[in-house]
Amino acid sequence: MSCRSPSLSEMPLGSVLGRRPTSHRNICTKVLLAEGRETPFTEHCRNYENTYKTLQTDVQNLKDQVQELHRDLTKHHSIINTDKMGEILDRSLHIDSQIAAQYSTVETVRVMFEEIWDETFQRVTNEQEIYEQLHDLMQLKQENFYLTTITRQISPYILSIAKVKERLEPFQEPKEHHDDRTETMLKIYE
């Protein structure tokens, strides 16, 4: 009688969380690191990638060893060395604690990066709001256009009134002597 359990090769590593690390994420990380700019985020990515690759290799090695044990047990009906099984289990528990520690680190760093991202997003949003210079210039241009139009419309009337005033000046009584300030004020008033 052989026992039938799912083979580890049939169970993808990412099946526990429902997804595998995507190649897109790996490519984006490589591009980010290749840019060469040193930021806290790129440093985190570099450290994470190194740790992740090490953990991934360790898990793959364990997977290979467990597959071998599973094959020996189910196909060859061999007696399994309990010491070897204990070593694999100990190594598996050790890797599990390393993964948990890395997970905790990533969670902690994520909170820090989310604060930085929020601040950066808010700064960019503020800069975009401030950078309404084109709109402001267009608004000034529109106001200037209205002023130019109004000036052109009233210009003939002003010229006509000026000509009439010029013709009437010889018939007006002589002006009293005013100081320059009074004259200036009258001109401003007119």
UniProtKB/TrEMBL annotation:
GO biological process, one term: regulation of heart looping
Coiled coil: 45-72
Superkingdom per UniProt: Eukaryota
One Gene Ontology MF term: Hsp70 protein binding
A GO CC term assigned to this protein in UniProt: perinuclear region of cytoplasm
Gene3D superfamilies listed in its UniProt record: Actin interacting protein 3, C-terminal domain (1.20.58.1540)
Keywords, ordered alphabetically: Coiled coil
InterPro entries: RNF207
Entry-linked PANTHER family: RING FINGER PROTEIN 207
Protein's UniProt name: Ring finger protein 207
Species, as recorded: Seriola lalandi dorsalis
